[in-house]
Design goal:
It is built from four helices and no strands. It has 126 residues and is mainly alpha-helical. Keywords: Membrane, Transmembrane, Transmembrane helix.
C-alpha cells in the first residue's frame, strides 16, 4: 500500500498537476503541499508500525522496509523544512530560485520506492 501511494502521488500526481490547464505554480504548490502533507502523515503511520513490529520481533521485517522508514525520516526532518520555506516564499508572491532540495527529495523518493519494492518482494518470498 505504501509503495502504491508513493508511486501515485510522487511520480504521477506531482508532475502532472503542473500540466493541467490553468494551474499556476502558486496553485500547484498549494495543492502539492496539501497532498504531500497527507501522504507523509500516512507514511509516518506506516513507518511507525513497521518499526514497532520490528522492535517487538513478532514478525520479521525486511531491512529494506526499515530503510524506507529511515529515508522518510530524512525527508521529513532534513529536506522538507527547506522545501516548505521555499514554497512559503513563492506562495507569498516572492521570486524564489529553484531549490536543490527538491532534487534531493526526488532522489530520496526513488530510493524509498526501491526500498519498499525490495522489502515487499522479500516479504512475499519469505
Amino acid at each position: 500500500m505504501w509503495l502504491g501511494m508513493v508511486l501515485a502521488v510522487s511520480f504521477l500526481e506531482a508532475p502532472l498537476k503542473f500540466r493541467a490547464p490553468g494551474v499556476t505554480v502558486r496553485v500547484g504548490l498549494g495543492i502539492g503541499r496539501l497532498v504531500f502533507r497527507a501522504l507523509n502523515g500516512v507514511e509516518a503511520v506506516f513507518a511507525a508500525v513497521l518499526v514497532a513490529v520490528a522492535l517487538l520481533g513478532a514478525v520479521p521485517v525486511p531491512v529494506p522496509a526499515l530503510a524506507a522508514a529511515g529515508v522518510l525520516a530524512v525527508q521529513l526532518l532534513a529536506v522538507r523544512p527547506g522545501l516548505n520555506r521555499r514554497s512559503d516564499a513563492v506562495l507569498a508572491g516572492e521570486e524564489a530560485p529553484r531549490s536543490r532540495a527538491h532534487l534531493v527529495y526526488v532522489v530520496l523518493e526513488v530510493l524509498k520506492a526501491a526500498a519498499l519494492l525490495t522489502g515487499g518482494v522479500l516479504l512475499l518470498a519469505g
